[in-house]
Each structure stands twice: as C-alpha cells, then as structure tokens.
Prior knowledge:
The chain has an 8-stranded parallel β-barrel with strand order 1-2-3-4-5-6-7-8, surrounded by 5 helices. Helix 1 packs parallel to helix 2 and helix 7 runs parallel beside helix 8 (181-199). It starts with a strand and ends with a helix. It has helices at 16-29, 47-53, 81-87, 97-101, 107-120, 132-136, 140-152, 181-199, 219-223, 240-249, and strands at residues 4-9, 36-41, 60-64, 91-94, 123-128, 164-167, 207-211, 230-233. The chain contains 10 helices and 8 strands. It has a single domain, classed as Aldolase class I (TIM Barrel). The chain is α/β, with parallel strands linked by helices. The chain is globular.
Amino acid sequence: MRRLLFAANWKMHLGPEEARAYLKAFRSRYNRREDRDVWFFPPAVSIEAAAQATRERADLQVGVQDIYWEPKGAYTGAVSAPLALQAGARATLIGHSERRHVFGETDADTRRKVAAALAAGLVPILCVGETLVERDAGHTLTVVMRQLAAAIGGTEGTPLSRLVVAYEPVWAIGTGRNATPADASAVHREIRAWLASRLGGGAAQPRVLYGGSVNLKNCAELLAEPELDGVLVGGASLDPEGWAQLVQTSAP
Ligand code: PEP
C-alpha cells in the first residue's frame, strides 16, 4: 500500500514559541491516519521545539530546510546534517527552488548535500523542477533529469531507498498556479523510471512528491493520481487547522 507523505515547508516563518503553539493546534485537530506520514520543516531555530512537540509520534517527524555539506567547522551561519540531527531533525530538504534561485545553489552543491545527509542518517528530500522559461521551451524533462543525475547519478551502491524526490515546478511555487494532476503525473512517471533504471527495479523505490501551490481545494485531486506519493506544501501548511484538514481529508 502506498504510504502518503505530507511535508510542510514553513520557510522563514514560525519561531520556537510559534512552532509549539502551531503543533499543539495541529495535534488537537489531526486524527492520526495509519496510511500517512506528516513531516514538518521549520526554520532551523525551531527544530528542537518542533521535535519536542512531536516526540512520541512516529508519524510526525521534523526536518531541516537546508544543510551545509561539511559536518562542522568555520562556516558562519550554516547548519550541518549532524547538528540538525542533534536538534531533532530526521530529514532535510535539498535543492529547494528558493535555495537554487534566491541563494544560487548549484547542482554540484545538491550532490554534496545529498551525500552529507545520507552519511549523517537524515532522509534527503531532493527538490527538482523547471522554471517557466524552461517549461515553455519544452525542456521540463531535460532539466529535471539533469538535476537528478547531478545530485544522485553515479551513486549506484549508495543506499538510496530512503531518498525522497519532490517534483516542484518553479513556476508553481507560491504562485497559486499548480501543475495539473496529469502534468504532474507525467513528470513523476519519468522520474520513477529514471530512479528505477539507476537504483534497480527490485530495490525499495524512493517516494516521489509533488509541490507547488497545493491547497485544500486541489490536494485530493492531485493525490488521486497514483504516481504521487504525497505533497510538499509551503503556504497552505502555515495554518495548523487548515493543514490538519488537508492532511486528514486528502484521501486517494
Ligand atoms: C514549497 O515551498 O516547497 C512550496 C511548494 O510552496 P507553495 O506550496 O507555497 O507553493
């Protein structure tokens, strides 16, 4: 059975106190469902508070929004995978479009970060996706495959079953404009085929999420596509009641 993953990217919102209040509200509204996991990605300063507020629930996990690939050292402002783990993170986003397009993160950086996450025992959620210009030029699959190959190509032998891939078209993030279920599904199918050809079809395959303006209105329709193993959500995850409703009611 497909185990759905609902990942909430809080971006630069919700400090430790707000994170505690959010999770209290979320837990009071969310009736646990056995077929789904809910992961929260708070800002690094709120990881510990969020991890404490979810600690006795295996279905609720906390992650970090970004890591630096070195484990420790003179890297002012950076957070490493072992440090995030120590604070309570169990996963990390890697290559989110805001990291790539606001902070200039490269494909080579994502490769180092995936390796660092796996070495530390964090689940990497590798984000890939094309810009509007690339989409309009018909380059969606070329871009997505390039990003996948750069981050994890040539790593055969590395246990990647814990990897998660999030297809997030850049033009759909925070814009209110989501990919249609059919469009998302078509790209997911190609991602899955690429992963199976690299990792071997027999191995447990990474989950593939969709992200980009997912909300209460469109989530069920997107998840009705069997190619989608879950969603990565920014804006619509910031309200704990709405997020609880979205996670709970989006049944395929
Ligand atoms: C995201 O931050 O990964 C995201 C998909 O944001 P939004 O849901 O706001 O488009």
